[in-house]
Design goal:
The chain is of the alpha+beta class. It is built from 21 helices and eleven strands. The protein folds into three domains: 215 residues, no CATH class; 131 residues, Serine Threonine Protein Phosphatase 5, Tetratricopeptide repeat, CATH 1.25.40; 134 residues, no CATH class. Strands 2, 5, 6, 7 and 8 form a five-stranded antiparallel sheet that branches.
Length: 660
C-alpha cells in the first residue's frame, strides 16, 4: 500500500513470514521473590528502569516506598520512572498530585548527591511553565551533577523537556549518544542476544543388555554338559585310569584355550555381522523440499555446517558426498534425541556444529571411517582357537578309544552316546556363554563410548554457553544502544528540517519491528529486534512532520527514509486493532490519502512462560515501542486538531512548584 510517498508498504501482516528466529532467555534478572524485602524490590525496580521498562519500575519502586523504603535515592528513581517515556500531559491528575506531594518531601531527606539530583529533577519540572531565560541556574546545577545522574535525568525526561530548555542540552545529549552507540563492542556482540539458549547435551545411550536371559539358561546347559562329559570320562577311567587322566587334562586345557581365543573371534565376527546387516538410514524428506519439519531442519543444518567445516584439500561438494551416510546417521540420532515439542533446531545447532567439526578433525587424523564393530577378528586368536578345538576333538576321540580298549559293546555304545551328548550340550552351553559374555562386553564398550561422547558434547556445550554468556549484551546495553540510535535519528531529522527544539510543541517516536527480523527477550522483559523501523512525529505550529526509516540494529545502518507532512486537520482518525494471534496494528487515516497500517508488535502469546501474564507483557512491549505516548498524541490531534496542541503546549501548563 502507498502512504502518499514513493514507498510501498506491505500490509500482509497476518503472515509470520519474515520472522527468522525468536528466543526467550530464561534469566532471573527481573525475578522477585514473594517475600522480597522493600530494598530488593527497589533494586529490581531500578533494573527495570535502566532496561527501558518504566511501567514495571513504577510498580516495583512504589511498592518499596509503600513498605517503608523511602529516601532521596528511592524518590529520585521513582520520579524518573513516573516520567520515563511520557510527556507531562500524559500524566493523570492523581499522578501529578503524587509528584507534587513528593516534591514537598525533598526537604525531609538527608543531604547528599541523591537529594541534589532529586531537587534538580523537580526544578526541571518547574521550568516547564517558566520562561526560558530563567532556566540558566537549573541547567548549571544539572551539569554539576555526577554524569550517571545527569544522563539518567536527560534520558528519562526526554519527552518532558522541550523548547529552549532542551535546546540548551541537546548538543551534549547528541554527543553522548554518538559516543555510546557503538560502545562495549556492539557490532560484535548484538548477534549473541538473538542466539537462543542452547539445549543441554545428549547422546545415544547404550542398548539394554540381553545377557540376563543367557545367564539364566547357562547353569542348566553347563550342568548338562558337565554331567555328560563326566560320564564319558568315568567310562574311560574304568577302562584305563592313567590314560583317562592324561586325556582329561588335555581336553580341559584345550577347552579352556578354545574358550579364551574363541571368545574374541566370536565377538568380532558377531559385531561385524551386526554392523554389516544394519539397514541404511533413508532420507526422511527431500532436502530440496520446502517443508519445515524438525528432522528436515536438522538435515539442512547438518548440510550447512558440513559445507562450512571442510577438511583441507577437499571441495565442499566432495566432502558432502563422502559423508552422506555419516550425516544420515547423525540426523537420525539428533532427531531422535531432541524431537520434542517447542524445541527448534536453532537450540541444537551448537551440537550439530560440534559434530561437523569433529567429523572434519577425525577425517584429518584418518579415523573418520573407523568402526570398531567392523574390525576383523585377530588372525592369531582365530588360528589358536581352531587349533584348540582340534586338540579338544582329538582328546574326545582318545577318550572313546580308551573306553573301547577295555569295555564291551554295551559300554562302548554308552560312551558314543555320551560323546555325542557332550558335543551337543557343550556347543549349546558355549553359545549361551558367548552371547552372555558378548552382551556384557558390548554393554561395557557402548557405555564407555556413550560416556566419552557425552563428555565431549558436554565440553562443547559448556564452551559454547560460556562464550554466549560472555558475549551476549545485557538488557542495559541493548537499551542504551537503542536510545542512542533514536537520539541520533531525531537529531538528523531536526537538521534536515532545520528545526530546533524551540520550534517544536512536542514529538514522539514509534519503534516497531522491521521484517525480516530476529527477536529475543529475557523473561519478563520486552522484545528486542535485530531490525527496527523508527517513525518520528515532529509536531510544530504548522502541522506534523513524519519521518520513518528502517534500522539494522547490529551496526545501526539505516535504510531509505520516507517523509510526509500534513496539517492537523488532515489526520482524520487513529485506530488500534488488537488480535492476540497476530499482534497490535495502528491505523492512521488521512483525509487526503489512503489509510496506513503500522504493525506495532507481533503476537507473542506462544512465547510466554507459564508464569508470565500476557496482558502485562503486552503492556511492557507497547511501552517499549513508544506506542502509548504516540497513540495519545495522534488520537488527540485527530480528535481536536490544533485545539489539542494549544491545550497541551508546555508554556500553558499549570505551574509546578520546585522544592525549597
Amino acid at each position: 500500500m502507498n502512504d502518499g510517498t514513493s514507498t510501498t508498504h506491505n500490509s500482509a501482516y497476518d503472515s509470520t513470514v519474515g520472522i527468522q528466529a525468536e528466543t526467550v532467555h530464561n534469566s532471573n534478572v527481573y525475578f522477585v521473590h514473594p517475600d522480597a524485602s522493600p530494598q530488593e524490590k527497589f533494586r529490581v525496580g531500578v533494573r527495570y528502569l535502566e532496561d527501558g521498562i518504566p511501567s514495571r519500575a513504577r510498580d516495583m519502586i512504589s511498592d518499596a516506598i509503600a513498605h517503608g523504603h523511602d529516601d532521596a535515592e528511592v524518590r529520585f528513581h521513582w520520579v524518573l520512572a513516573m516520567l520515563s517515556g511520557r510527556a507531562y500531559h500524559d500524566l493523570g491528575a492523581e499522578e501529578v498530585q503524587r509528584l507534587r506531594h513528593a516534591s514537598g518531601l525533598v526537604r525531609s531527606y538527608a543531604e547528599g548527591e541523591w537529594k541534589d539530583a532529586l531537587r534538580v529533577a523537580f526544578e526541571l519540572l518547574a521550568m516547564l511553565s517558566t520562561a526560558d531565560g530563567d532556566a540558566g541556574r537549573v541547567l548549571e546545577r544539572l551539569r554539576s551533577l555526577p554524569a550517571s545522574r545527569r544522563d539518567a535525568i536527560l534520558h528519562h525526561f526526554d519527552l518532558v523537556l522541550t523548547g529552549g530548555l532542551k535546546d540548551s542540552l541537546w548538543a551534549d545529549t547528541r554527543a553522548r549518544a554518538e559516543a555510546a552507540r557503538f560502545a562495549h563492542n556492539r557490532v560484535d556482540r548484538v548477534w549473541a542476544y538473538f542466539e537462543p539458549d542452547p539445549i543441554g547435551p545428549r547422546a545415544m545411550p547404550p542398548r539394554p543388555s540381553t545377557a540376563a536371559t543367557g545367564q539364566a539358561a547357562l547353569p542348566l546347559r553347563a550342568g548338562l554338559f558337565l554331567a555328560v562329559a563326566a560320564f564319558l570320562w568315568v567310562l574311560a577311567l574304568l577302562a584305563d585310569p592313567a590314560e583317562a587322566a592324561v586325556e582329561l587334562l588335555v581336553a580341559i586345557g584345550a577347552g579352556l584355550a578354545a574358550a579364551h581365543f574363541g571368545r574374541e573371534w566370536w565377538y568380532r565376527e558377531h559385531q561385524l555381522k551386526a554392523a554389516t546387516g544394519e539397514p541404511q538410514i533413508p532420507h526422511m524428506r527431500d532436502p530440496e523440499s520446502p517443508g519445515d519439519g524438525f528432522t528436515n531442519q536438522v538435515r539442512h543444518s547438518f548440510e550447512h555446517y558440513f559445507s562450512n567445516r571442510v577438511p583441507h584439500g577437499l571441495d565442499p561438494y566432495e566432502w558432502l558426498g563422502q559423508t552422506v551416510h555419516i550425516r544420515n546417521g547423525l540426523v537420525a540420532e539428533i532427531a531422535l534425541l531432541y524431537r520434542e515439542s517447542r524445541i527448534g533446531v536453532d537450540r541444537v545447532n551448537w551440537l550439530i556444529r560440534h559434530l561437523a567439526e569433529d567429523a572434519r578433525d577425525r577425517y584429518s587424523k584418518g579415523t573418520l571411517f573407523d568402526d570398531g564393530r567392523r574390525k576383523k577378528s585377530p588372525v592369531m586368536a582365530k588360528a589358536l582357537c581352531v587349533l584348540a578345538l582340534g586338540v579338544l576333538g582329538c582328546a574326545t576321540l582318545a577318550l572313546l578309544g580308551t573306553v573301547a580298549s577295555g569295555a564291551d559293546g554295551q559300554r562302548m555304545l554308552l560312551a558314543v552316546l555320551a560323546a555325542v551328548g557332550a558335543v551337543s550340550s557343550g556347543r549349546r552351553a558355549a553359545h549361551v556363554w558367548l552371547e552372555a559374555r558378548g552382551e556384557e562386553r558390548r554393554l561395557a564398550e557402548e557405555t564407555e563410548a556413550y560416556e566419552e561422547e557425552l563428555a565431549a558434547r558436554q565440553a562443547a556445550y559448556q564452551k559454547w554457553k560460556s562464550f554466549l554468556d560472555a558475549t551476549r549484551p545485557s538488557e542495559q546495553d541493548m537499551e542504551t544502544w537503542l536510545t542512542c540510535d533514536k537520539t541520533v535519528f531525531v537529531d538528523e531529522a531536526l537538521r534536515h528540517y532545520q528545526l530546533t527544539w524551540r520550534d517544536l510543541i512536542t514529538h514522539t517516536i514509534l519503534v516497531t519491528p522491521a521484517r525480516p527480523y530476529k527477536r529475543g527477550r529475557v523473561k519478563g522483559g520486552p522484545w528486542r529486534y535485530s531490525r527496527y523501523s523508527f517513525r518520528l512525529f515532529l509536531v510544530t505550529q504548522d502541522g506534523v512532520r513524519e519521518i520513518s526509516s528502517d534500522f539494522d540494529f547490529t551496526d545501526a545502518r539505516r535504510g531509505d527514509e520516507q517523509r510526509s507532512n500534513y496539517r492537523f486537520d488532515a489526520l482524520s482518525s487513529v485506530q488500534v486493532t488488537e488480535r492476540s494471534d497476530v499482534g497490535y496494528d495502528l491505523e492512521l487515516i488521512l483525509t487526503n490519502g489512503p489509510a496506513r497500517n503500522i504493525r506495532v508488535k507481533d503476537a507473542d502469546t506462544h512465547q510466554l512462560a507459564p508464569d508470565e501474564n500476557a496482558r502485562e507483557i503486552a503492556e511492557i512491549n507497547l511501552n517499549a515501542a513508544g506506542f502509548i505516548h504516540t497513540f495519545r498524541l495522534l488520537e488527540g490531534i485527530a480528535a481536536d486538531g490544533k485545539g489539542w496542541i494549544e491545550r497541551n503546549n508546555p508554556n500553558n501548563l499549570p505551574p509546578f512548584r520546585a522544592p525549597d
